[in-house]
């Protein structure tokens, strides 16, 4: 229960969950918001905010197996979804401005909100919608609890999970402190079958056009360290709140790949064996995310004024080495050895100020206006060095590693577009009117967002190295909630939203062979995409807390950013071109979302809870080859499950099942079709008194697999004529994960 309800949770209530967790029915604002408290997720012990989001409507992922990083709300690419922490944006590493939700440990979460439409109160970067993660604060908890446990993976690796949270009165206010250590591990196996050229019948690939097979092990191992805190003073007319969180990730990604010239054989190097190449790729990643913001609110004769000041920063240091030995050489030649060192440094910081004032307009309405300022700085450095050579040696891929041959690298040099700085200043103003007429809550407002961008690329000539752009957008919005009865209501909204260009598209550098054999030239003058959209839904309350709802959404997207041909010849000569992104496309997105959260008290089973959601997702875009969906939008996603509680025994168990549909992506020179296996999770819980709970959880019990089909072409002409350069089938699997978790309140 949140602080708006005027009550504070006891630590024992969080450790020992009594009954069934439900999706909350939000009444405070007219916006279409779905809210899920931590009791809705906790029994399945999600590790991250991304894991928790797998159980809410319309969220899909294109992540690797058993990972949930960049959420795709309504199936759209991650950059179309606005991610907020405590209502504020946070920077991340991705060029498309998305934020990886596996950066936030689930233990920090108080609730998750899906904001289906936009409001003038918030920034408009939310074409697909907004995901807001509310972290625990001092008015959410009284007392403390600790968590200790471990996770066992299918390669017998055991990782720790430790944490504590405490909240209570300190001085004139309330303080909350929390800390977590989470071991992360993901051992995967991949297999790729590749075929060359293009026979008349695709079915003939397996027999006529086989090129090579790649076997890969991919292990991701690391530790996450996180801390969060809040301090709040509520002095009646004046309220002050300070929030902060810090997350540090140390991670190693270790890949080993073998390419063979036979679909099944694993003998040694060619020409006497089948091994064409041996590759070792190791990436060491150090990431830090921190955010701090303070909010001061004061009620006085002229209304209610609030001032919020925040600072957020993300840094990533990534060192990656790749060594490969090639044995598929001309007869008599020695094997070829090649090494690459890549150093990536990203620093992204945001300073923001928001001022808002509310003025009552009688007893049923209020007028709200304010402004928003943000200063964003992003510095990216990507540097590479090479190492090449040949040599004569015997090789056993089972006892040796290409890293054994590592030597000195050449001097690091920035890749094209790999040394840049982007400064982005935003100045927004907004105003809205809210009304509450008993059965009808409504809001109507407008927001104006002005953005000025300054781009410096240190890898291009001085005459184009410094460029700037500015744009402004007017974003109207309106929402309502109409109560038909005490149990039934209609929720509707209409809003204009936008999506700012991704960072790598606005750099003035030319990236050779980035589009198949063709080149990509960035465009610093790109404007944001924009969309008009509406949501209309119906909710029905079931029993004391159960809810069933259905929602239809539609988005009309303008100024889509698509790659266009400049007509200039590419670096690879005749038949290749230079492409650049432009605001030239339109698209539409639509779908239906259904969700259910209830117990079965209406049939005499109050301790049995059911939950589930189904989303049917569709879209339409016209690109260089005709009509398609938005890239990587799954056709559907659903999950459902149950929880059975046994109050007299202090025990519970439950299961959840999830499946998302096929996703398709088409860009110049490459087409990818991705399918996913189903996911099954099961938990068993035993409670001991009012202070102690232990849970056993099994996840990925169906050995979920991700399968991808790649159609690859040298250029657009070959793609239109279906003249393949390569056809690839790739599969990725990971085994089940088991965890034991104990919690004790104090």
Automatic annotation (TrEMBL):
Basic and acidic residues bias spans: 213-224
One Pfam family in the UniProt entry: Plug
Residue span of region Disordered: 201-225, 254-274
UniProt-annotated location(s): Cell outer membrane
Major subcellular location class: membrane
UniProt xrefs under SUPFAM superfamilies: Porins
The protein's name: TonB-dependent receptor
Swiss-Prot/TrEMBL keywords: Cell outer membrane, Membrane, Receptor, TonB box
Recorded family membership: Belongs to the TonB-dependent receptor family.
Family matches, as InterPro entries: Beta-barrel_TonB, Beta-barrel_TonB_sf, Plug_dom, Plug_dom_sf
CDD domains, per the entry: ligand_gated_channel
GO cellular component, one term: cell outer membrane
Domain annotation TonB-dependent receptor plug: ranges: 28-130
Biological classification of the source: Bacteria, Pseudomonadati, Pseudomonadota, Alphaproteobacteria, Sphingomonadales
TonB-dependent receptor-like beta-barrel domain span: 372-701
PANTHER family documented for this protein: PLUG DOMAIN-CONTAINING PROTEIN, TONB-DEPENDENT RECEPTOR-LIKE BETA-BARREL DOMAIN-CONTAINING PROTEIN
Organism of this sequence: Sphingobium fontiphilum
